[in-house]
């Protein structure tokens, strides 16, 4: 919407590869060439990106912006500023607000607040059921046709546990190319659940949240999605068993995608020994074996995307006994660094892989045309067999290898300093809330600049 | 000893034996005409009870008063979630009053841990039972009672029967008894054993009759009748038949074995009335021993390293008798 001036980004390492120059004009990438080959037009601002990694602007499939209703925890303004500082150019806003985003009116309000804030695009997710109560459908079609053009529907926070309702939802949204993003949690198996069920929950005397309560729902939903030929997206996958089930479903050619949070890639349930509710989250932190399986699943593409599940809570909702505390962690401002620690430093993903899992695929899952844009790799030899298939995320070849930035793509971009190390200080977060489980931790990599349609929202690590 | 007593896992073997030995020493006081020591004179002990437990509160209160501490009873029914002020604000209030020790009972597992580590208060925290986590002084008084009857606990076989899943008594006992060298067997229907119990010290069994003949002590846990509505077992009768301690099963125990129960009992459910009242049951003794153990714990956490009874001998300690202060925390949400 803002008509940006021209920017020349000099010497950025495209997806971690060779240094390049990019000229941004009119919201698009106007020119790309090897470092030193693009000259700055008169009046263009020049940004020296020597040593920085250039990624497509990050896209978060799972953000809680809390507005309307809990503006004490976060607002669209504060949450999207946090997102921009974390390298995001688009976030999908979960509908568990007060009131719930279950009508065209509420999703349009959130969408409009996002445009007014201007830090990144806000794409609302609509509730599947009225009031997220799991009984009757929300007006899915009205939300799809609204100005917010909703494509993802979720009762996140609650599972759509009624099998018939889930089946019908999967079917119904086919009419407008929608997808159901399921919060997979069998409610009866997780009544009053406080942490991962395992040896530690028994020792700590906290009610357990068994892995089977997630896995059983994912298996059921995958079968339903296959049966009715619909798209299913699985939110915040947290167990090794879930990764196996999703791998199996994808192996069948079913249209199932999945996301994992940064915290599930780095933290384990051992942290609960402290009874510090900053580690209380739903789904709960799991075991080291689960963390390893999630990393492997993200690396091999079984898990399509990293999504933050950024869940801000005011101090009083965490400064209390474990059972009384709210579930959730903030994550927008630490996500890229955590992924770098869990996936890049361990050699599981390169920067092209990070771009794929944090931008290209989430944008494709959410049908966000202006984001996650890269020129695909040259037609792979095996593409003949894929030609007839719908364009779907899930093909790992799309962003790795030779995928690159190109003239004419929308200039949603993120510059990262891969060599930086920083210590997380909750007091300095742009989010209104402080509930980060990474407080005091040293993390690698730092977002230096974020461009939204050619216009910087963050520059030198600060709001532009 | 550490500064706080949150879990029996905090106690080394030496610590645990020190508590038991100190309690022995302090128990002799009960035979004197004046039962009071000046040891904690001028120190303030707060009994912070978020959950009803008259028995445990009275036991701690008696213990603190016999050591001449000032006692403040702070009862806040219901959790901080439901109504009233938060745990944090309560803690800050107690800190402002200068509490040297806070004895806390709470329905939320880990609440005492939170109090001890959050920086809200500086005093020692004693866990008087937290949710389904631990109840360390109960385990200490159980060990003390067993030691009186059985001698050293090394190699002794202790059978704990019942709702282990929801029992803070069981957790504290398993850890402490392992530290003291006893062999613990947990007996329960599989639904009432926590996932991962195989990682705990000791054995588990679903068959009470198989375990009784080799038990030196059998500890029956309270089983709430409501558990059957949550599908943990079919009926009170079936539970009682399979896992209750009745007269026949009492006969299967070795002659020297003792019967224990942390109370309150469901007579006719986990324990038959005639077993509860028989001469091998040490249930009332457990209660009496509770005061000595809690005196020992408060003394060791607050009183320093001098021998407990050495500071007695003068009678003037009774000067401050009966100076406990009572008040109710706000019960109305603000």
Describe this structure in words.
The complex is a heterodimer of chains A (464) and B (334). By secondary structure, chain A is of the alpha/beta class. Chain A has a domain at 56-360: TIM Barrel (Alpha-Beta Barrel), CATH 3.20.20.140. Chain A is 26% helix and 20% strand. Chain A is built from twelve helices and 19 strands. Chain A has helices at 76-85, 104-117, 140-145, 163-172, 199-204, 211-228, 240-251, 262-266, 288-299, 335-344, 351-365, 383-386; strands at 7-14, 19-25, 28-34, 45-48, 53-56, 58-63, 88-93, 121-124, 152-153, 179-182, 195-196, 208-209, 232-234, 256-260, 305-306, 413-423, 442-452, 455-459, 462-463. In chain A, the strands form four sheets. In chain A, strands 1, 2, 3, 4, 5, 16, 17, 18 and 19 form a nine-stranded mixed sheet that branches. A five-stranded parallel sheet of chain A has the order 9-10-13-14-15. A three-stranded parallel sheet of chain A has the order 6-7-8. Chain A is globular and about 65 Å long. Chain A starts with 6 loop residues before the first strand and ends with a strand. The model of chain A is unreliable at 381-400 (pLDDT under 50). In chain B, helix 1 packs across helix 5, helix 1 (13-27) packs across helix 11 (283-302) and helix 2 crosses helix 11. Chain B starts with 12 loop residues before the first helix and ends in a 6-residue tail after the last strand. Chain B has helices at residues 13-27, 54-66, 87-96, 111-117, 136-150, 168-179, 208-211, 236-243, 247-252, 273-276, 283-302; strands spanning 44-49, 70-75, 101-106, 124-130, 157-161, 183-187, 203-205, 217-220, 258-260, 325-328. Chain B has two domains: 8-134 and 290-328, Aspartate/ornithine carbamoyltransferase (Rossmann fold, 3-Layer(aba) Sandwich), CATH 3.40.50; 136-285, 3-Layer(aba) Sandwich (Rossmann fold), CATH 3.40.50.1370. In chain B, 34% of the residues lie in helices and 15% in strands. In chain B, the strands form two sheets. Chain B has a five-stranded parallel sheet with strand order 4-3-1-2-10, sandwiched between helices. By secondary structure, chain B is of the alpha/beta class. The chains are: A alpha/beta (464), B alpha/beta (334). The interface between A and B is medium-sized, with 24 and 30 residues.
């Amino acid at each position: 919407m803002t008509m940006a001036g021209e920017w020349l980004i000099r010497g950025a390492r495209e997806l971690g590869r060779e240094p390049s120059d990019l000229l941004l004009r009119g919201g698009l990438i106007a020119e790309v060439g090897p470092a030193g080959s693009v000259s700055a037009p008169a009046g263009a601002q020049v940004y020296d990106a020597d040593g920085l990694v250039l990624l497509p602007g990050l896209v978060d499939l799972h953000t809680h912006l809390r507005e309307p209703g809990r503006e004490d925890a976060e607002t669209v303004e504060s949450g999207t500023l946090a997102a921009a500082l974390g390298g995001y150019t688009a976030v999908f806003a979960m509908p568990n607000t007060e009131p719930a985003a279950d009508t065209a009116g509420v999703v349009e309000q959130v969408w409009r607040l996002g445009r007014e804030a201007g830090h990144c695009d806000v794409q609302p997710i609509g509730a599947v059921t009225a009031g997220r109560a799991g009984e009757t459908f929300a007006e899915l079609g009205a939300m799809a046709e609204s100005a917010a053009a909703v494509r993802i529907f979720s009762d996140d926070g609650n599972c759509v546990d009624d099998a018939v309702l889930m089946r019908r939802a999967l079917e119904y949204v086919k009419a407008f190319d929608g997808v159901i993003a399921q919060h997979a949690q069998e409610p009866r198996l997780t009544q009053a659940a406080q942490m991962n069920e395992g040896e530690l929950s028994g020792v700590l005397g906290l009610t357990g949240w068994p892995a089977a309560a997630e896995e059983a729902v994912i298996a059921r939903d995958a079968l339903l999605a296959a049966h009715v030929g619909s798209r299913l997206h699985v939110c915040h996958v947290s167990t090794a068993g879930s990764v196996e089930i999703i791998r199996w479903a994808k192996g069948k050619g079913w249209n199932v995608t999945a996301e994992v949070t940064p915290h599930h890639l780095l933290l384990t349930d051992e942290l609960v020994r402290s009874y510090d509710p900053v580690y209380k989250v739903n789904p709960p932190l799991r075991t080291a074996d689960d963390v390893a399986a999630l990393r492997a699943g993200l690396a091999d593409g079984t898990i399509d995307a990293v999504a933050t599940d950024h869940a801000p809570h005011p101090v009083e909702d965490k400064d209390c006994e474990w059972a009384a505390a709210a579930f959730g962690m903030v994550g927008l401002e630490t996500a890229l660094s955590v992924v770098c620690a869990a996936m890049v430093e361990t050699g599981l993903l390169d920067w092209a892989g990070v771009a794929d899992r944090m931008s290209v695929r989430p944008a494709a899952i959410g049908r966000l045309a202006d984001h996650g844009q890269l020129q695909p790799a040259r037609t792979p030899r095996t593409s003949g067999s894929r030609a007839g298939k719908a364009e779907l995320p899930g093909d790992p070849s799309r962003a790795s290898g030779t995928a690159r930035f190109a003239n004419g793509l929308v200039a949603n971009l993120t510059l990262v300093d891969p060599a930086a190390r920083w210590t997380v200080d909750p007091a300095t977060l742009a989010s209104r809330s402080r509930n980060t489980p990474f407080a005091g931790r040293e993390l690698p990599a730092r977002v230096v600049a974020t461009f939204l349609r050619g216009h910087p929202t963050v520059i030198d690590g600060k709001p532009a | 000893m550490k500064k706080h007593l949150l879990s029996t896992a905090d106690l080394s073997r030496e610590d645990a034996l020190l508590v038991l030995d100190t309690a022995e020493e302090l128990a002799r006081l009960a035979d004197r005409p004046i039962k009071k020591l000046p040891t904690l004179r001028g120190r303030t002990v707060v009994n912070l009870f978020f959950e009803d437990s008259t028995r445990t509160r009275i036991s701690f209160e008696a213990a603190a008063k016999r050591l001449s501490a000032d006692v403040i009873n702070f009862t806040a029914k219901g959790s901080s979630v439901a109504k009233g002020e938060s745990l944090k604000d309560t803690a800050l209030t107690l800190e402002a009053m200068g509490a040297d020790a806070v004895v806390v009972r709470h329905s939320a597992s880990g609440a005492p841990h939170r109090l001890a580590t959050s920086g809200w208060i500086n005093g020692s925290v004693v866990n008087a039972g937290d949710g389904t986590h631990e109840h360390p002084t109960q385990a200490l008084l159980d060990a003390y009672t067993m030691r009186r009857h059985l001698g050293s606990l090394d190699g002794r076989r202790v059978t704990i029967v019942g709702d282990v899943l929801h029992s803070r008594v069981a957790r504290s006992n398993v850890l402490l008894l392992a530290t003291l060298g006893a062999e613990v067997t947990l007996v329960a229907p599989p639904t009432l054993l926590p996932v991962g119990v195989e990682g705990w010290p000791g054995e588990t069994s679903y068959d009470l009759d198989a375990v009784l003949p080799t038990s030196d002590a059998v500890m029956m846990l309270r089983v709430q009748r409501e558990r059957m509505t949550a599908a943990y077992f079919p009926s009170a009768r079936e539970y009682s038949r399979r896992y209750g301690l009745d007269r026949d099963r009492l006969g299967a125990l070795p002659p020297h074995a003792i019967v224990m129960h942390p109370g309150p009992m469901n007579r006719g459910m986990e324990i038959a009335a005639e077993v509860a009242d028989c001469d091998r049951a040490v249930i009332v003794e457990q209660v009496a021993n509770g005061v000595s153990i809690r005196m020992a714990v408060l003394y060791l956490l607050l009183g320093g390293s001098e021998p407990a009874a050495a500071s007695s001998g003068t009678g003037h300690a009774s000067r401050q008798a009966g100076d406990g202060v009572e008040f109710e925390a706000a019960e109305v949400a603000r």
